[in-house]
UniProtKB/TrEMBL annotation, chains A, B:
SUPFAM superfamilies on file: ACT-like (SSF55021), Periplasmic binding protein-like II (SSF53850)
Coiled coil (UniProt feature): none
Annotated organism of origin: Solibacillus isronensis B3W22
Protein name: Prephenate dehydratase
Pathway annotation: Amino-acid biosynthesis; L-phenylalanine biosynthesis; phenylpyruvate from prephenate: step 1/1
An individual GO BP term: L-phenylalanine biosynthetic process
Lineage of the species this protein comes from: Bacteria, Bacillati, Bacillota, Bacilli, Bacillales
Length: 290, 290
């Protein structure tokens, strides 16, 4: 029953010091972390067997689902979720140490669009006239700031990026909403649960459901299937099917194991109703320490 | 019964040659179009009385809802929808005319993140190694390309941007999915329908619903209220409430007028069930010509 004595290869949405890196290191401290440039490349790395697992962001408490993750898992991959990780998101305003003193002189602010959106009010009221530029990640924005000495630009990024790129934290915790977590999926080719069972373990199962006909009546039927069984949905969200405005599939998280008889019965009925059911499997939730 | 003889001031998500500009010009050819830098600024311009109307994107057939529009309308404004406009989205790969011949040499590709996502497969298979940089809009990316002569960069943008910035279209229609429309809201302080009644007019009403307790049971109840009345929902989508992962509000589009007795009765029952109902009003749908 001993663990295999080799490191797992784990793809994550890079670069180093990204929020995804922090989540990956939290759950897999002793494995081999390999940064990839994009979410599709992380997913393809698992599909093609280059790595055993991939960690990608799937939902943020403020911004909602990460469309690229949801859509790629639905349309382009046959992977399963083996675990989910929740991480608290704290954003800071970082500048090159050379400009640690002159707060007024910020010429441009770089970050991932989600991070800029999460700090929208702070930036609007404190740096309203300053141009905001979208960047591929918060960590890449921090790296750019570390490399730019001829003008004072700032990045919105996490503490780990400030450390890694040796930046000055001009303002701590500039995110508008106090409560902000991001949820990450750990993806695998195998439909298994990640090994360690967390405290107060509650299993969760994610289905992607495509309804047979019109949205309103069919969604009502689908929810009836869950409701009379008292199966608790912790999430239901629609995503466009890419076949036209008004055509959706639904991502549902159910607080139950797909091997439980009640959930098995629900799936059988959903299929009988004409739904397409794509299961991403059953998994546990892990929380990274602050 | 004559129209007032002055131009309406209409804010739109700029810059000129953006997809929002095309939608705005399509519905209001003879009015005063004023570009704003961001969606919140467009909405605030109406709230503060600087303009009569604002046109902002609300949903794309591929990318889904525009979170900033939905969230700002829910959390920060008391505006109504007076019309919606549907526009077909066609993306092209544009380069400076100076580089019209050397296809291999593209060093970097700029565009709005949604446009890059819409052309993800084309870019992955044809320009896989080329860095993609998010930009504030497709038109701003086109402008950047027009101003950059020392290296060959490209923009993903529409035909109008190619014309305005005098760029070479290296490749037409590079979007991955053939069917791609964007839906725009025309916002006003007044809860009225835009004047001209379109052909085959079908009224639509948008509600933002906050459920009283747990998602699964409450959503089932809400849908029951619409289902037995045969009120047709053309859309239901969840957005995070920003109070924690798992707390959502729902945007619903109902194909009915909120003055109809059936819809009035539904709203009364929703309130009795403990739902918070925020109406964005009833409006008609317009389609811009291709």
């Amino acid at each position: 029953m001993s663990e295999k004595n080799w490191e797992k290869r784990i793809a994550y949405l890079g670069p180093e010091a990204s929020f995804t890196y922090l989540a990956t290191k939290g759950l897999f401290p002793h494995d081999w972390h390999i940064p990839y440039k994009s979410i599709p490349e992380c997913i393809e790395a698992v599909s093609e067997g280059k790595v055993e697992l991939a960690v990608v962001p799937v939902e943020n408490a403020l911004e909602g689902s990460v469309p690229l993750t949801i859509d790629y898992l639905y349309h382009e991959s046959e992977l399963f979720v083996t675990a989910e990780v929740m991480s608290k998101i704290q954003q800071h305003l970082l500048v090159n140490k050379k400009f640690a003193e002159n707060k007024e002189a910020i010429e441009e602010i770089y970050s991932h669009p989600h991070a800029l959106a999460q700090c929208h009010k702070y930036l609007y009221y404190n740096h309203g006239g300053v141009r905001q530029t979208s960047y591929s990640s918060t960590a890449a924005a921090a790296e750019l700031v570390s490399q730019t000495e001829d003008r004072c630009i700032a990045a919105v990024a996490n503490f780990s990026a400030a450390e890694k790129y040796n930046l000055h934290i001009l303002e701590h915790n500039i995110h508008d909403f106090h409560f902000n977590h991001t949820r990450f999926f750990v993806l695998s080719k195998q439909n298994i649960k990640h090994g360690l069972v967390p405290l107060q373990a509650q299993t969760k199962t994610t289905f992607m459901l495509t309804l047979p006909t019109d949205v309103s009546g069919a969604l009502h039927q689908v929810l009836s299937v869950f409701a009379w069984r008292k199966l608790n949905l912790s999430k239901i969200e629609s995503r466009p099917l890419k076949t036209g405005l008004g055509n959706y599939f639904f991502i549902t998280d159910i607080l139950a194991d797909e091997e439980e008889p009640m959930l098995k019965g629900a799936v059988e009925e959903l299929i009988a109703l004409g739904c397409k059911v794509k299961s991403l499997g059953t998994y546990y939730t892990y929380v990274t320490p602050e």
